Amino acid sequence: MIKPKVLGFWFWAILLCLTGCQPALPAPVAVSEPEHFAKILYPEDNPTTLEGLALGKQLFYDPILSVDSTISCSSCHLPELAFTDGRSVSVGINGRIGKRNSPGLANIGYLHQTLFWDGRADDLETQALHPVADPNEMGGSWPLLISKLRRNENYWPAFQRTFGLIEIRELTPDHVGKALAQFQRSLISSDSKYDRVERGEADFTEVEKLGHAIFFDLADEPDPEFHGLPTGECAHCHIPPHFTNQRFFNNGLDEALLLEDFKDIGRALVTGSVYDNGTFRTPGLRNVALTAPYMHDGRFNTLKEVISHYNSGGQYAENRNANIFKLGLSPDQEGALVAFLHTLTDSSFVNNADYHQ
Amino acid sequence: MKYTSLFALFSVFFVLACQDDDYNPTRSENITTTIQFRAEYDNTNLAIQSATYAYPTGAELKATLFQYYISDLVLLAADGSEVGLSDIELIRYEDATADNIEERTYDVPSGDYVGLRFGLGVKPDLNATDPSNFAANDPLNENEFWNANARYVFAKIEANADLENDGTFDTGLSYHMGSNDLYTTITFAGNFNIDGDGDPQLVITADMLKALSDGTNTFDIADPDKQRVHGGNQAVATEIWGRLVSQFELSLQ
């Protein structure tokens, strides 16, 4: 007969052992979001945690993700350039030239629809999986990378803490994608001059105000202040607060008498539809003055060139968006649009120490 | 006595375990019902981009976008009550790989109905609301507003036209409409029963051409001043809007 006291001792001892052997739960983090944005839609299986945020940031800046440990995410997404790289198209391992311009990451967590210029990733978690095995980017393979991370004395414990892993074989590419997504969802820009004007804390200069009126087609508004002004038609697609509608359009960059004439078919690579040839995802414009060069192939070096393109009405293709047409902007009005776009620069975003290595 | 109690307890567990997990005593009152929103061009299935359509003036069109908001979608019950199905829906056709049918599914109480009603556009109280107040994936946060301030674009028709019949669709047509003044309630009469057994398919059809031409009056797409209607020239939009409102049809199939 075992005495009750002894039985009680063993009960608590076993319970303590069982709970003590469980990995500590990661600590949830509520990333601060501005009031005037609709909240980020977090996936149920990847809430942001203290551990995940730190791990995601470490991975983002670590070239371990590439096959020869020379290229990290940050090679093409530099925080001081609003997470772009200043190149026409990205450069990967061994100087290999990529196909597309590196997109900025400001407010990327708010973009809940597809990602990449052609929309080939459904969310941030899966987006992060693409560059690792792309021969023109990181040039590696997931089995190789996962093997490296499992053996790494820093990363394995970090993955354990973040995702509650016990066995080393439990670590998969999904965990890497989730950690990187957590970090990227924290990259929030909401304190540009545009935001401060919206909040009533600042005023546009006269030139910026003119550009703002052209950008938002205020000539069409009942208020007569801007009647007679050309409309820029920009906000059909570049809609605030993130200045993108996340959809795909042909904005008249290349002439295509036949839809099959496009060299880079863009969205059609994903949909397989010829009618999507030459269409690309509308990029967000926050910090756009820092993200030159522009367009999916980086063909325009300056914002002035971008505005001149739209002012011209672009090149013919039968799927050119119907809102692309000759605008009739004067050089001063073109300059005003550029001035307005500069008000989307958020220095507190690019200088945020939390985002830097 | 002890065994009797245990047997009773076991019986309760057994009966509970054998019950269908989905058993719901109220289910018979609600029937899952799908409403189809069908888009057409001149009484044929609307095909985004892939079809070339004749326009009454002799021009040809390729449709690129047809969309509209509806508010307060309700079924009108035979007993005079109303069954609210949805506050707001955005019906959009823009994908060349998709068909011309958008579906929405609702739980509808079984019973006899005499009609259906909705408001075309975004009802005034929602139209006064900041899009950012809604979830990022809400129909009211689908980036269909005029500018940074709330005021939704109720409907859009976009196409590329070949005005000269030279094989190039080089004239963009872009009609964006929306204001509280344009908001219009549309009511359909039609008797139907929903009981889960052979229920009719409710189909709401909108015809893009009929919004531009009613057979007698045709919107002049060759006039440069009528090739786009955005925020300011809503007086021009009124002509299209009036036809758009009047051409909706409800069919019970």
Description:
The complex is a heterodimer of chains A (357) and B (253). Chain A is mainly α and 357 residues long. Chain A folds into two domains: 25-188, Cytochrome Bc1 Complex, Chain D, domain 2, CATH 1.10.760.10; 193-354, Orthogonal Bundle (Cytochrome Bc1 Complex, Chain D, domain 2), CATH 1.10.760. Helices cover 33% and strands 1% of the residues of chain A. Chain A has 14 helices and two strands; from the N terminus they run H-H-H-H-H-H-H-H-H-H-E-H-E-H-H-H. A two-stranded antiparallel ribbon of chain A has the order 1-2. In chain A, helix 2 (50-60) packs antiparallel against helix 7 (155-163) and helix 2 (50-60) crosses helix 8 (173-185). The model of chain A has no long low-confidence stretch (mean pLDDT 93). In chain B, a hairpin with an 8-residue loop joins strand 8 and strand 9 (171-177). The longest helix of chain B is centred in the first third of the chain and has 17 residues, at 2-18. Chain B is built from four helices and 13 strands. Chain B has one domain (32-252). In chain B, 16% of the residues lie in helices and 41% in strands. Residues 6-28 of chain B have low confidence and may be disordered. In chain B, strands 3, 4, 5, 7, 8, 9, 10 and 12 form an eight-stranded mixed beta sheet that branches. Chain B has 253 residues and is α+β, with helices and mostly antiparallel strands. Chain B is globular, with a radius of gyration of 24 Å. Chain B has helices at 2-18, 124-127, 208-212, 234-247; strands at 30-41, 44-45, 53-54, 60-77, 82-93, 101-109, 111-120, 155-162, 171-177, 184-194, 202-207, 228-229, 249-252. Classes of the chains: A mainly alpha (357), B alpha+beta (253). The interface between A and B is large, with 42 and 39 residues.
